[in-house]
Amino acid sequence: MVKSSAARPNDVTFVSILSACSHAGLLLQGIEIFHMMVNDYGLHPGSEHYGIVVDLLGRTGELEKAMDIINRMPVPVEPLVWGALLAACRIHHNVEIGEVAAKNLLCLDSNHAGYYILLSNMYGVDGKWGNLAKIRSLIKEKGLKKMIGQSMIEIRNEVHSFVADDKLHPECEKIYELVGQLEVILKLQLQHI
């Protein structure tokens, strides 16, 4: 990150940078940037920043360190932080820490179907079929439904909402045409890498 620029990064800038580090698996760089945010720029990390650091540590299998970060957070631990940890526990087969994350998640929001599904998937990956069945039964008992993924964008003070395979947007033909063009461009670019 260039520090000599006249423009000062803000907390949103660091959310973007940390997220990029997480998705690229750049553990050391992400931790360094997190410390830079606090020490060099005097910004106070929020739950979203901590959630990304937990995600970063989780993606690289550093679940105990992620748990340590959570235990030392000076801000309230929001569901996105516990959700990042639970997702990492599923990937890295750590049921013990995953159950701690799930317990905290469900205390914060017991009606979010996605958390139960993530927990049941963790049990399935680990072959704990009895636990998986209990969670799936609980989902049915509570009448929970998984929400579909949705993206939103604001253009000229008008909010546009999108879901996968959405054909209801008034300009869906133009949108899918543009997406198709972008796919072609990306495929051509990948051939040259």
UniProtKB/TrEMBL annotation:
Gene3D superfamilies: Tetratricopeptide repeat domain. GO terms for molecular function: RNA binding. Keywords: Repeat. One of its GO terms (biological process) is RNA modification. InterPro entries: E_motif, PPR_At4g14850-like_plant, PPR_rpt, TPR-like_helical_dom_sf. This is DYW domain-containing protein. It comes from Gossypium darwinii (Darwin's cotton). The lineage of its organism: Eukaryota, Viridiplantae, Streptophyta, Embryophyta, Tracheophyta.
